[in-house]
Amino acid sequence: MLFYNWEKVKKESNGSVKDIMTILHVLTYKLPPVNRHDRIYKFWTKSFHGHSFLVNPEALFIQRRRYSDAEIAQYAGIASLRNYFEYQKNKRYQIRPPPLYRG
């Protein structure tokens, strides 16, 4: 399970899909950069810990051929809306839609 701060990921990546994927990779696999020219070098020392969570982030990278990087970045953003305490209680991870306005 991976916990991350989606707002900080967006801010540090400046909305770049490649950088979001790099940050998710760093958080998932925790591999150190090879040298200072490595793409993960600028994100390696920063903390992205937060309340957003992915239950099985490795699956995103294992099945990366099936989805575009933009789709994976969108999934991570949407997943940040889930409530971890509800997941702990029910072992279901879904996003509840907001109540409809009936005015």
Tell me briefly what this model is.
The protein has 103 residues and is mostly helical.
Word description of this protein:
This protein is mostly helical. It has one domain. The protein has 6 helices and 2 strands, in the order βαααβααα. Strands 1-2 form a two-stranded antiparallel sheet. Helix 2 crosses helix 5.
How many strand units?
Answer: 2
**Structural domains: how many:** 1
Order of helices and strands: EHHHEHHH
The SS-based structural class is: mainly alpha
Query: Which outline best applies?
Result: elongated
Sequence of strands across the biggest β-sheet:
1-2
Give descriptors for this structure.
103 residues, mainly alpha, two-stranded antiparallel ribbon, 2 strands, 6% strand
Helices and strands, with pairings:
Blueprint (H helix, E strand, L loop, with lengths): L1 E3 L1 H8 L3 H13 L11 H4 L7 E3 L2 H6 L6 H11 L4 H7 L13
Antiparallel strand pairs: 1-2
Helix pairs in contact: 1-2, 2-5
